[in-house]
């Protein structure tokens, strides 16, 4: 006579259909770090545009330049985050 695990605790599935496709490939390969970089970077780009516009209208050129430099840094960060996402591909090769 073999003992079975108690039926009162159902086994949770390892993944839900929303998480993986039929082939077992993750549907969204994004990492939270890259998503945060992209979302906060987009917000900062809008903020830099507003600060740069204010600096240009008031003719405070150092504010315009600082906002431009910060916008360039943020744009490069977003570029690298998107590049990391593309490099992830479609998921792990082995389920081992």
Write structural notes for this entry.
The protein is mainly α and 96 residues long. The protein has a domain at 32-88. The chain is 56% helix and 0% strand.
Q: Could you spell the SSE succession in H and E letters?
A: HH
**Which structural class matches the secondary elements?**
mainly alpha
Morphology call: rod-shaped
Assembly state of the chains shown: single chain
Task: Give the strand content.
Answer: under 5%
Radius of gyration: 23 Å
**First-residue to last-residue Cα separation:** 32 Å
| Sheet of most strands | none
DSSP helical segment count: 2
Unreliable runs, pLDDT <50, ≥5 residues?
A: none
Organism: Microtetraspora fusca
Keywords: Membrane, Transmembrane, Transmembrane helix
Protein name: DUF2530 domain-containing protein
Which key phrases capture this entry?
single chain, 96 residues, mainly alpha, 2 helices
Write the layout of secondary structure elements.
Layout: H1 32-57, H2 61-88
Protein name: DUF2530 domain-containing protein
Biased composition (Basic and acidic residues): 15-25
Region (Disordered): 1-28
Q: Summarize this, please?
A:
The chain has 96 residues and is mainly alpha-helical. It is 56% helix and 0% strand.
């Amino acid at each position: 006579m073999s003992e079975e695990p108690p039926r009162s605790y159902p086994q949770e599935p390892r993944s839900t259909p929303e998480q993986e496709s039929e082939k077992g490939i993750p549907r969204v390969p994004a990492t939270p770090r890259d998503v945060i970089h992209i979302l906060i970077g987009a917000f900062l780009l809008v903020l830099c545009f507003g600060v740069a516009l204010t600096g240009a209208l008031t003719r405070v050129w150092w504010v315009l330049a600082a906002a431009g430099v910060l916008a360039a840094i943020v744009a490069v960060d977003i570029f690298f985050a998107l590049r990391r996402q593309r490099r992830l591909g479609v998921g792990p090769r082995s389920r081992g």
